[in-house]
Amino acid sequence: MWWQDLLWGLWNGFSAWVVLIVHAFGHWQQYPLYNVKRDDNWYGLGFLVGAGSPFFGFFGRGFLPSRR
Question: Which of 20, 31, 51, 62 could form a disulfide with 13 if both were Cys (CB 3.0 to 4.6 A apart)?
Fold first, then answer.
């Protein structure tokens, strides 16, 4: 179902940053960064939104200097 792929993509996108850092130190090789078996449009969209979500807050209104 499309919503399951979207949710898996979101979850894997959120956890991708932790897995990427741990992979950089040579651990957790059994956990892939991106699940190729679920690769479709909805999974890809969820992964993109999930992986980009930590950066969405940086580009929000709180990151910009106030204009007073």
Answer: 51
